[in-house]
Amino acid sequence: MTSHKAVTLGLAGTGRIGTSHAETLKNLPNVADIIVADADPDRARTVATKLDITFAPDLDTLFAADLDGLIIATATDSHPELITRAVDAGIPVFCEKPVAADIAGTLAVLDHIQTSTVPVQIGFQRRFDAGYRAARAAIAAGSLGWLHTLRATTLDPTPPPADYIPRSGGIFRDCGVHDFDIIRWVTGREITEVYATGTNQGDPFFTEAADVDTAAILLHLDNNTLATVSLTRYNGAGYDVRLEALGSKGNAIVGLDNRSPLTSVEPDYTPSSSPAYPGFMDRFRNAYTEELIAFISVVNGTLENPCSPTDALEAFYVAEACELSRHEHRPVQITEVRR
Questions:
Q1: Exposure winner among 86, 255, 262, 288, fewest CB in 10 A?
Q2: 3-state secondary structure 66-111
Q3: Angle at alpha carbon of residue 129, lines to 124 and 134, rounded to 5°
């Protein structure tokens, strides 16, 4: 990292995740400047003033700066335009997932950038978490034997705001897509078939948006490994994201530490005195930092893109198949939704 060129990065979007990225970048070596812009200029100005970084009043001003890279942390519907605009200008891109709101939009972006050599890194931060990396290494080394079962969980402690749900894409595209991506990445295998179901017992706005607040998914991988994914918006004990990789010789468990919101009722169990993770920003703080460090290496040409738009598309296909499965109450092959 220390041998890298100091870079000037643009940051579009200063909401929660964008502001967090700006704070992280501010403390990284070899970041010469961060220029921030937002659809709400006052919000961007406030962040720039607080962090002593550069404010751009609009996106045109941001793109007119001499940027080495662009970080996109705006609303999903703006991602395609910003990605293609940056690539056309020769600016390497880091974009929070998803590439676009749906498969058609994702394919349109891929079609637009397919002949370009400008890298576009998509934000699936779990790939940079130490636990998931250790599980991937153990599987690749064969120390677990052959995998028979994977169990993944993404359990949010409280639901997002009601107005977010209708534009979220649904629990599979918004939430489960992280599990689908990390299962592919950790195992190096493809998901071939899904069976998904879901229920609502919480706030009525999920039902009103034709979404569910809790879901269970069974996945078949192309080597006959089975995987289950559990999702919910109502895990009152805390933020619980784990992966269990179970093999013929051993296992690897990601996310099992003294802040995991799990309570044993065994009589000899000693509860942890550490508070449970309240949300994804705390659980994956180090992973978000490593992800941005990787992007700076991508910008400098010293690292291959660790998460391409094609990777994002594959995870999106799985989410799409889950939605179809839930509605039609049947197993769905990924080939049914692939375009």
A1: 262
A2: CCCEEEECCCHHHHHHHHHHHHHCCCCEEEECCCCCCHHHHHHHHH
A3: 125
Short-list 219, 171, 172, 177, CA closest to 194: 219
Question: What angle, 0 to 180 degrees and rounded to 10, lies between the N-to-C axes of helices 309-328 and 103-113?
Answer: 160
Question: Cα separation of 218 and 322, whole Å?
Answer: 9
In angstroms, the CA 181 to CA 313 distance is 10
What is the CATH class of 127-278+315-336?
alpha beta
C-alpha pair distances (Å), 189 with each of 176, 185, 216, 314: 17, 7, 21, 11
Tokens of 78: 């703006």
The CA radius of gyration of the chain, in Å to the nearest whole number, is 20
Q: Note whether 7-125+288-308 and 127-278+315-336 share their fold.
A: no
Per-residue pLDDT 10s for the chain (339 aa) are 445 789 999 999 999 999 999 999 999 999 999 999 999 999 999 999 999 999 999 999 999 999 999 999 999 999 999 999 999 999 999 999 999 999 999 999 999 999 999 999 999 999 999 999 999 999 999 999 999 999 999 999 999 999 999 999 999 999 999 999 999 999 999 999 999 999 999 999 999 999 999 999 999 999 999 999 999 999 999 999 999 999 999 999 999 999 999 999 999 999 999 999 999 999 999 999 999 999 999 999 999 999 999 999 999 999 999 999 999 999 999 999 999
d(CA 122, CA 118): 13
Residue 40 amino acid letter: D
pTM here is: 0.95
233 CB neighbour count, 10 Å cutoff: 24
Half-sphere exposure of 109 (CA within 13 A, CB side): 29
Q: 7-125+288-308 belongs to which CATH class?
A: alpha beta
- Parse the chain into domains and list their residue ranges: 7-125+288-308, 127-278+315-336
Strand blocks (E) in 126-250: 147-155, 191-199, 214-221, 226-232, 240-247
Strands 120-123, 93-96: parallel, antiparallel or unpaired by DSSP?
parallel
